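[User] I wish I could look at a protein chain and see how it folds. I have put the entry right below:
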Amino acid sequence: MEFLRALGRPILGFLIAAAIFGVIERIARAKDHRPAWRRPGFGTDAAWWMVTPLVTKTITKVGVGLAVFVIAWATIGHSVSKEAVVAFVERPTWASRLPWSLEIFVTLATADFVGYWEHRLFHRGWLWRTHAVHHSSERLDWLAAVRVHPLNELLSGIVRVAVLVGLGFRPTMLAGVVPFLTFYAVLLHANVPWSFGWLGKIIASPRFHRHHHALEARGAHGVNFAGFFACFDLLFGTYHLPEGDEMPATGIREPIPPTVWGQLMFPFRRRT
């Protein structure tokens, strides 16, 4: 019964996302639009919508929790109890003294800044084999947003939380911006041609992110890494959004297994 209840949450989330983004993609359809359930890889991505919340998120929560515990232990300097960790997480910091709205903004901006550099690292070396799973969708749309290898999620989550907590940000506030970033990540992958006009140089748009997933976009290790603030790409020279209505083909040249299990094992397979 508990398993069925746990399974019901991702199913409900999948159905809600299908309703919201199915309507968005139908209203503002791109040139290569087709319903998500009629494209190659539908079954694999639908399965990822179950694997990610049930397996990946659970692993990441444990990893992040251990990271916070280690930081608390290193900071407090003695045996750490559950109460001590809670007190450490809720302790007053420079960030907690900011007005509530400003603290949210600064937390979001810093988290996205750290995520930008993490994303760039995941396009290099062995980390790319972990991240390549996410780039393997040949037809990019909202459904492909959660095709993320658990190691990709775990490593980026631990590093992001460790950096932000080390800088004095509150984990509780960081946890508060995660649902927004998750929703926005799904929106970025929607198959719509939105670029947000002049605002697109500040805020990442679906067309901006589609160029990140473009088949030929990994030259010099890629472009458009920001998850929310596109201005980071402008600042560090990785911004790419050509004029016009170009909707590039997406995917990667490397052969990636088509099944969830094959994709889970892909980073550990020896290159041929």
Observations:
- The chain has a mean pLDDT of 85.
